Every structure is written in C-alpha cells, then in structure tokens.
UniProtKB/TrEMBL annotation:
The keyword Zinc does not apply. GO terms for molecular function: acireductone dioxygenase (Ni2+-requiring) activity; acireductone dioxygenase [iron(II)-requiring] activity; iron ion binding; nickel cation binding. This is Acireductone dioxygenase. Keywords: Amino-acid biosynthesis, Cytoplasm, Dioxygenase, Iron, Metal-binding, Methionine biosynthesis, Nickel, Nucleus, Oxidoreductase. It is found in: Cell membrane; Cytoplasm; Nucleus. Pathway: Amino-acid biosynthesis; L-methionine biosynthesis via salvage pathway; L-methionine from S-methyl-5-thio-alpha-D-ribose 1-phosphate: step 5/6. It comes from Papilio xuthus (Asian swallowtail butterfly). Fe(2+) binds at residues 89, 91, 95, 134. The keyword Cytoplasm applies. It is a peripheral membrane protein. GO terms for biological process: L-methionine salvage from methylthioadenosine. InterPro entries: ARD (IPR004313), ARD_euk (IPR027496), RmlC-like_jellyroll (IPR014710), RmlC_Cupin_sf (IPR011051). Its EC number is 1.13.11.54, 1.13.11.53.
Length: 184
C-alpha cells in the first residue's frame, strides 16, 4: 500500500523518510485531489496475464516503454543521475513508473508549495502529472527497478524550476486550484 506524507524541512540525507513531527500523513484520495498524482497497485505475479497494464497503456496512449535499474552497480554516472533526479523539475508529459523491485520516494508540491513524499514499492504504478514540480530519490535501500512508460519514444525533457511560464505548468496550476477531482 502506497503511503504519502507532508515532509519536514530537514535538508540532510534525501533518502530518509523526512516525516514531520508529529507525522502528517495524507490519503491517496487527498493526494490525487491536491496534486493530480494517480496511483495503482498491480499484482506483479498476475498483471501481465490479466492485462491490467495493457489496459492502462491503451487508455492513456502509452506506446513505448523501457526499464531502468537505479543502483550504484547498474546505473552509469550513478551519483550525478541521483542528483539530477532529485533536482526539482517538471516535464511537458506525464511521468509514469511501475516499480518492479526495490523502493524509493517521489516528492511533489501541493498548491501551497509544500512537499508531499510518496513511498513507492514493488507493484506501485505512479503517474506524475505533466506540469507538476516533482523529484525522485531512492530510500536507504539504494535500489529500485522500474518500467517507464511513455506516450512516444522517450524524448521528454526535464525543465528545472523555475519553469512557471511553460504552458503545461500554467494548465497544471489552474487545474490544481480547482482540484483534480473536478472536470477539466
């Protein structure tokens, strides 16, 4: 089960949980309403035979995928890549990941510019909306393998903050003001 919480303001090791004291958890429904993040829990033993992922890919127009393994042993330029992943940024396309092994954190800003941390583990499929400021880091296990889904061949760019003048950012902010449960 995915867990999400508001982060403390401690700037030390990004791989720590960084929960506030006392912890301030947020439900998955509230997370979606405030940020647009969508989460699915897939059974890694059956999702392919049941066609669950194929259905999501078809509904959302994802036509390309690859796999990434994030570990010191497997990822070239590991330290630089982790710094890049943890730099606050946005994309003009959705960021979609299905965690197949390991664990990590996606952080996303709410409408008040506060960080919400989302713990992902095997079977979690997370969709980060286009135009949202977010970042990623491993947890203390220092390992994650994920399938990455794309609308087309990977070509989307990372735009570090500030990127507030981008059309996708403006659209995201307007939707965030209305709440993501409301119609577009």
């Amino acid at each position: 089960m995915v867990k999400a919480w508001y982060m403390d303001h401690d700037k030390t090791d990004p791989r720590a949980e960084h929960q506030r004291n006392p912890p301030e958890f947020i439900s998955i429904e509230e997370l979606h309403r405030k940020t647009g993040v969508e989460l699915f829990k897939l059974d890694l033993k059956t999702y392919e035979s049941e066609g669950v992922l194929e259905k999501i890919k078809k509904e959302r127009g994802y036509t390309y995928e690859d796999e990434i393994t994030i570990s010191k042993e497997c990822l070239p330029d590991y330290d630089e890549k982790l710094k890049s992943f943890f730099t606050e940024h946005l994309h003009a396309d959705e960021e979609i990941r299905l965690v197949t092994e390991g664990s990590g954190y996606f952080d996303i800003r709410d409408g008040l510019d506060e960080w919400i941390r989302i713990k992902v583990t095997p079977g979690d499929l997370i969709i980060i909306p286009r135009g949202s400021y977010h970042r990623f880091t491993l947890d203390n296990n220092n390992y994650l393998r994920a399938r990455r889904l794309y609308e087309d061949e990977p070509g989307w760019l990372t735009h570090n903050r500030p990127a507030d003048e981008m059309a996708c950012r403006k659209k995201y902010v307007e939707q965030q003001k209305r709440g993501f449960d409301s119609e577009n």
